[in-house]
Design brief:
The structure holds two protein chains of two kinds. Chain A has a domain at about 1-90 and about 165-245: 3-Layer(aba) Sandwich (Rossmann fold). Chain A is about 35% helix and about 25% strand. Chain A has helices spanning about 40-50, 70-75, 95-105, 120-135, 150-160, 180-190, 205-210, 230-235, 235-245; strands spanning about 1-15, 15-25, 30-35, 55-60, 65, 80, 165-170, 195-200, 215-220, 220-225. The longest helix of chain A is centred in the middle third of the chain and has 14 residues, at about 120-135. Chain B has a single domain (about 25-320), classed as Orthogonal Bundle (ABC transporter involved in vitamin B12 uptake, BtuC). Chain B has helices spanning about 1-20, 25-50, 60-75, 80-100, 105-125, 130, 160-180, 185-195, 195-200, 205-230, 240-255, 260-280, 285-295, 300-305, 310-320; strands at about 140, 145, 150-155, 235. Classes of the chains: A alpha/beta, B mainly alpha. At the A-B interface, helix 2, helix 3 and helix 5 of A face helix 7, helix 8, helix 9 and helix 10 of B.
Chain lengths: ~250, ~325
């Protein structure tokens, strides 16, 4: 069964066509990487799926349910979470509070006026466990602004996971990292997302080929090719899009 | 924990004994400080905790005051606690109405729209002469309080007024303090910090802001109710822009975002204006200069001075800067 299905998706920005007749399905349990040259529409695709933008045309089905045009918070509550390319956390809250915000949301306690947040055992427990798994325990009381870049990225991904989503969209989780940091980040992501369905936008090909079960290549807002890594590696169209060869050039 | 209980008991004892120590003129001042504290605390919940800089908070203070005045005049048989509560509820409803529009905007635009709604409610109070007395204002008689088992408690006795106002104010401030500790209070902080991310992890930021706006309006309304009850007179000055500024002043003097700052701010503001106005008619000018200095050099208000760590940090940053 497909967890996410995109049907004939279009997105225009005042005449600029960013997504064009895009069809894609994500299978339950897979790690699906989306790659493509700059400007191919990867970030826009994420923004359309998660409700930041409304598609111009087309439908988005999440677990069989039409979620086209819903606001981000409704989509998040249905179990579709995302991380951001540019770190987007609660800057003046500590690591613990950042993660807790997501846990509170997952526990459906957002509007609770009666309990004291500090006294809700299951929230505290879950938050601590997650911080432990993220390896952030030593810095749990540090405000997010004072974290190093790598730690901020880990927090970014951690908050995305904390809502216990069915599908996780990661937007360039290793952007701006050194080789070493990237290795650590990939290991961390693999470890904490075991058994989850992932959709990842990534520029680092090593990361893509080490993580992905399937790869989709976007170019000019439409799907150029989609399949297992080996198939993509050998695909002429993909090489052309990346290396700038003419589409029908003889090989 | 034990120290906390002792401190609270000491505060309670002080407040209970205060009327027997203070001369009566000061008692009036203390009552005023009490309900303005509530007004300032409700403003601080909105601005300090929720990041919503409102320039129209007097609208809800005024709605509460007028509601109580009208009820006391036309429905004199209504029990006093209900009269005061209705003042708050009317303001809360006004808050839902205005908030539903205002919180769609951010920053300066939000501030402008709250101001516009303030003017809107002000104009209603000014023009509905038959109901509110227009710019002549309206007077009311303080209803007595009927307590089960005790009978009527006469409210022409300032001592009884003091205890009632103190009770209501402390109750309301405690409720707000508690709210700030609940998951909802946390949601308010999260939405202030980063409403986009809050949305992407499942928070309905719009509803959170409307709920905050309405609850702060409710408590401002209770403050207005007590104001009308105490003064026995309500005029448009309780709902005008100057009253909105008063909430801003008190909160800034005490310290934005610190829970107890606005209470201190209300006290200092009222005593200070009382003192300055005895020296010069131009007390508003003095106040204006003071506000400029506060915003420029002491944005954390008086509570900021009490925060030793912050001062140390500020000093160390300055030293590093000099190197």
């Amino acid at each position: 069964m497909n967890i996410l299905e995109l049907k004939d998706l279009y997105k225009h920005f005042r005449g600029l066509q960013v997504l064009c007749n895009l069809n894609l399905s994500i299978e339950e349990g897979e790690c699906h990487a989306v790659i493509g040259p700059n400007g191919a529409g990867k970030s826009t695709l994420f923004n359309v799926i998660t409700g930041r933008y409304r598609p111009t045309k087309g439908r988005i089905y999440f677990r069989g349910e039409d979620i086209t045009g819903l606001p981000p918070y409704r989509i998040s509550r249905k179990g579709l979470a995302r991380s951001f390319q540019i770190t987007n956390v609660f800057p003046h809250m500590t690591v613990y509070e950042n993660v807790r915000n997501a846990v509170v949301s997952k526990e459906r306690l957002r509007f609770n006026h009666l309990l004291r947040l500090g006294h809700i055992g299951r929230v505290a427990k879950e938050t601590e466990e997650l911080i432990e798994r993220l390896g952030l325990t030593p810095i749990r009381n540090v405000p997010a602004t004072e974290l190093s870049y790598g730690q901020q990225r880990a927090l970014e991904v951690g908050m995305t996971l904390a809502t216990d989503p069915k599908l996780i969209l990661l937007d360039e989780p290793t952007a701006g990292m050194t080789r070493e940091q990237t290795k650590e980040a990939v290991a961390l992501i693999k470890n904490i997302t075991k058994g989850k369905t992932l959709m990842v936008v990534e520029h680092d090909m090593d990361v893509v080929f080490s993580m992905a079960d399937r790869i989709t290549v976007l170019s000019y807002g439409t799907v150029l090719a989609s399949g297992p890594p080996d198939e993509i590696r050998g695909n002429d169209l993909v090489r052309a899009a990346y290396l700038g060869k003419r589409k029908n050039a003889p090989t | 924990m034990k120290a906390k209980i002792v401190a609270l008991a000491a505060c309670a004892a002080l407040l209970i004994l205060l009327p027997y120590v203070l001369p009566f003129t000061h008692l009036n001042m203390v009552i005023e400080i009490a309900f303005f504290s509530l007004f300032a605390v409700s403003y601080n919940m909105l601005f300090g905790y929720g990041g919503l800089l409102s320039f129209g908070h007097a609208a809800y203070f005024g709605i509460g005051a007028y509601t109580v005045a009208i009820l006391a005049k036309h429905y004199a048989g209504l029990p006093l606690p209900l009269t005061l509560l209705f003042g708050g509820i009317a303001s809360g409803l006004g808050g839902v109405l205005a908030g539903a529009f205002c919180v769609r905007l951010k920053g300066g635009y939000f501030a402008l729209l709250t101001m516009a709604f303030n003017q809107f409610f002000f104009a209603i109070a000014l023009k509905s002469r038959s109901l509110t007395g227009g710019d002549d204002g309206m007077s009311l008689k303080r209803p007595d309080l009927y307590l089960p088992g005790l009978g009527a408690v006469a409210m022409n006795n300032i001592l009884h007024v003091y205890y009632l106002v103190m009770f209501v104010v402390i109750l309301c401030i405690s409720v707000q303090w508690y709210l700030s500790k609940t998951p909802f209070g946390n949601s308010v902080r999260a939405v202030k910090e980063n409403d986009e991310r809050a949305g992407f992890i499942g928070y309905n930021t719009y509803l959170t802001k409307v709920a905050l706006y309405a609850s702060c309006s409710f408590f401002a309304g209770i403050a207005g109710s007590l104001f009308a009850f105490f003064q026995q007179f309500v005029a448009t000055s309780s709902i005008d822009a100057a009253m909105s500024m008063q909430a801003v002043f008190m909160t800034f003097i005490g310290g934005v975002g610190s829970f107890f700052g606005p209470i201190l701010g209300a006290g200092v503001y009222l005593y200070f204006t009382d003192w300055v106005s005895r020296i010069t008619d131009r007390w508003e000018f003095v106040l204006g200069v003071l506000f400029v200095l506060l915003v420029m050099y002491a944005r954390t208000g008086l509570m900021g001075f009490a925060d030793i760590d912050r001062i140390k940090r500020a000093l160390s940053i300055r030293k590093e800067g000099n190197r």
